[in-house]
Amino acid sequence: MAFEWKLDDTAKLASFWATILVAWWSYGCFWKLLEISTDIKIDDETKERMEKGLEDMQKGQQEMKKGLENVQKCQEEMKNSQEEKINSVEDRIAGRMKEQIAVVEKVGTEIEKNKQQVEERIEGVAENFSLISQRMEDL
User: Fold this and answer.
1) pTM for the full model?
2) Are 50 and 42 in contact (CB under 8 A)?
3) Max Cα separation, the chain?
């Protein structure tokens, strides 16, 4: 039984050796960084500048936090203001609708009154006509 070398086997082997190479390189870099980091010495002036820079960054963060709180507060106030305006407009619309309904109801009652008066006058004319007819007959 002969062993056949396939392209897939080559890729697997290359991947394996690449992993070994990266691990070896990373291990070497780690020890080199560790060696360098132990040799770093910071003078007092550099340390003070770094501390001042850190304090400035912290102040900047606090200012940003306050600014964000102000923005949120303004957004909340604007939201409340818009809700009040919407409620005010809704109330005005409801008031106008009630006024219009009252006007329509009043017009409806006026129409009914006028209709009733017309009917009463028609009945009065009919009675008068009948009285006139009787007098004519009497004469």
Assistant:
1) 0.43
2) yes
3) 150
Place of tokens 């303004």: 74
CA distances from 18 to 8, 117, 130 (A): 15, 109, 125
What the block records as the tokens of 4 is: 């056949």
Between the alpha carbon of residue 65 and those of residues 53, 75, 76, 78, 79, the distances in Å are 18, 15, 16, 20, 21
Identity of residue 104: V
Q: Calculate the CA dihedral of residues 78, 82, 84, 90 and round it to 10 degrees.
A: 180
Q: How many CB atoms lie within 10 A of CB 27?
A: 10
CA 138 from centre of chain: 90
Phi first, then psi: what are they for 11, rounded to 5°? -65, -40
pLDDT at 1: 46
Low-confidence ranges of the chain (pLDDT < 50): 1
Could you count the other beta carbons within 10 Å of the beta carbon of residue 34?
Answer: 9
- The per-residue b/e assignment along 85-115, b for 16 or more CB within 10 angstroms, e otherwise, is eeeeeeeeeeeeeeeeeeeeeeeeeeeeeee
